[in-house]
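Quick one, tokens below. Sequence please?
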């Protein structure tokens, strides 16, 4: 049986955004303005071809990845939303980007946070066999228009705001990438277990008690943020008081040295 894993990677820093687990769900802690890509790894034990799909906030990114029938480990990267397919030149994409999820006043009201599709990614994989070929003169997919559909819902007035997603995906910078487009028609034989990841702000996940500063691995996530308030919250126990004590000792030494110097001068 084959197996897939995936990583969300910060495009600017190359840092892997490691998920944390809570009640059977996996969450990525991130912030608005961060561009990212999705790396998928297939551990193939069948020798058959596999087709990988990615949706973000319920929106298909416009293309899939074929992992060929070689037993072993292979990797694929989703760089962004497809904008322009090209066979003899680099194809154009818009990078995936985390953005603030702020529903408008006229957004539809829903009873449960799960009805809001923002803040989630899903990787699915089919075991496939080739059964034909498409017309190579026609494009395989249409450009993806990324709008605010995932954020056009809100919770009822008075319901805890932090239960709703604080982030959604949007289109970022333009990415040019040379792509070998595959015009083979594939028929699925079976499907692997999909990978579902949710993403949200540290503040929202703290309020939901999903992100817990008492856990060392969660403190490490907080220390990796750009928000100094969250960095301080992620300090190891005793670290802040140790720094305060060290600073106090330094000030005391300076004061004592100053007094000694004054005494010498008086001689």
């Amino acid at each position: 049986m084959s197996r897939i894993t995936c990583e969300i990677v910060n495009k600017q820093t190359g840092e892997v955004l490691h998920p944390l687990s809570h009640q059977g769900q996996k969450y990525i802690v991130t912030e608005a303005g961060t561009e990212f890509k999705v790396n998928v790894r297939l551990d193939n034990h069948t020798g058959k071809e596999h087709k990988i799909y990615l949706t973000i906030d319920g929106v298909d990114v416009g293309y899939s990845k074929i992992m060929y029938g070689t037993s072993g480990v292979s990797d694929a990267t989703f760089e962004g939303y497809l904008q322009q397919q090209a066979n003899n030149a680099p194809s154009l994409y818009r990078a995936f980007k985390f953005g603030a999820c702020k529903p408008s006043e006229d957004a539809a009201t829903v009873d449960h946070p799960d009805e809001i599709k923002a803040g989630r990614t899903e990787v699915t994989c089919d075991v496939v066999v080739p059964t034909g070929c498409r017309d190579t003169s026609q494009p395989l997919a249409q450009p993806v228009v990324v709008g605010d559909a995932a954020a056009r819902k809100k919770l009822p007035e008075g319901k805890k705001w932090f239960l709703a997603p604080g982030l959604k995906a949007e289109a970022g910078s333009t990415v040019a990438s040379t792509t070998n487009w595959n015009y083979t028609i594939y028929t699925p034989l079976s499907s692997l277990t999909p990978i579902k990841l949710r993403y949200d702000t540290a503040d929202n996940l703290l309020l939901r008690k999903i992100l817990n500063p008492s856990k060392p691995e969660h403190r490490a996530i907080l220390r990796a943020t750009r928000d100094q308030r969250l960095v301080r919250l992620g300090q190891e126990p005793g670290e802040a008081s140790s720094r305060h004590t060290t600073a106090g000792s330094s000030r005391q030494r300076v004061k004592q040295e100053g007094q000694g110097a004054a005494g010498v001068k008086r001689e």
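Residues 84 and 92 are 5 Å apart (CA to CA). The two ends are 87 Å apart (CA to CA).
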